């Protein structure tokens, strides 16, 4: 096989408007482009209704700073007495689980030290990907948490989120502490 034949075998094909033509030059993408937006939901340990008053007012900005420290961008943070919803963007270099471990551990330590309470979060969390076009709807949902929870509690809300997002689960393992 001659040099020309070998070169032709390595050509990449791409679609133009009229036909398929061989691409003769190799083009590399020089940067990573992404939009990684997550709706994350998690509760206080044992669903203790302790996120109230001054604690709530200071907790959400503190969590936003922790997200920024992970090179993320908080879009909205809100919740009720026993759980928090976060809508955030993360860069592709930051693993969601790592970011959540950082946010939960540091906010738990901060709350315990600042408010002199034995505070901790539940072990896990729910996370759902959000498209750019869905950001406003999810933001509105998070903003209206007080209204939603006049109709149903966190457990029912969490199961509804899992169902809506097509996440399979076994209720025996959702609330193991009970």
Describe, in plain words, how this protein is organized in 3D.
The protein is α+β, with helices and mostly antiparallel strands and 178 residues long. The protein has a single domain, classed as Transposase IS200-like (Alpha-Beta Plaits). Helix content is 40%, strand content 20%. It contains seven helices and six strands; from the N terminus they run H-E-E-E-H-E-E-H-E-H-H-H-H.
Task: Write a concise synopsis of the structure shown.
It contains seven helices and six strands. Helices cover 40% and strands 20% of the residues. It is globular and about 60 Å long.
Features:
20% strand, alpha+beta, four-stranded antiparallel β-sheet, two-stranded antiparallel sheet, Alpha-Beta Plaits
**Helix content bin:** 40-55%
Provide the CATH superfamily.
Answer: Transposase IS200-like
**Which secondary-structure class do the elements indicate?**
alpha+beta
- CATH T-level fold name: Alpha-Beta Plaits
The beta-strand count equals: 6
Architecture, according to CATH?
2-Layer Sandwich
In round numbers, the mean pLDDT is: 87
Total domain count: 1
């Amino acid at each position: 096989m001659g040099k020309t034949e070998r070169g032709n075998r390595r050509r990449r094909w791409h679609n133009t408007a009229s036909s398929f033509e061989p691409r003769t030059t190799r083009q590399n993408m020089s940067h990573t482009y992404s939009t990684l937006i997550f709706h994350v939901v998690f509760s206080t340990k044992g669903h203790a209704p302790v996120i109230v008053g001054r604690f709530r007012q200071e907790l959400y900005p503190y969590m936003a700073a922790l997200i920024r420290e992970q090179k993320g961008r908080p879009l909205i943070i809100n919740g009720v007495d026993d759980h928090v919803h976060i809508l955030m963007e993360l860069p592709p270099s930051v693993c969601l689980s790592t970011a959540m471990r950082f946010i939960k551990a540091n906010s738990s330590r901060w709350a315990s030290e600042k408010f002199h309470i034995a505070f901790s979060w539940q072990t896990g969390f729910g996370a759902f990907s959000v498209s750019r076009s869905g950001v406003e709807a999810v933001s509105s949902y998070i903003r209206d948490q007080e209204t939603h929870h006049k109709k149903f509690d966190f457990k029912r809300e969490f199961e509804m989120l899992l169902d809506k997002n097509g996440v399979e689960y076994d209720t025996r393992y959702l609330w193991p502490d009970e």
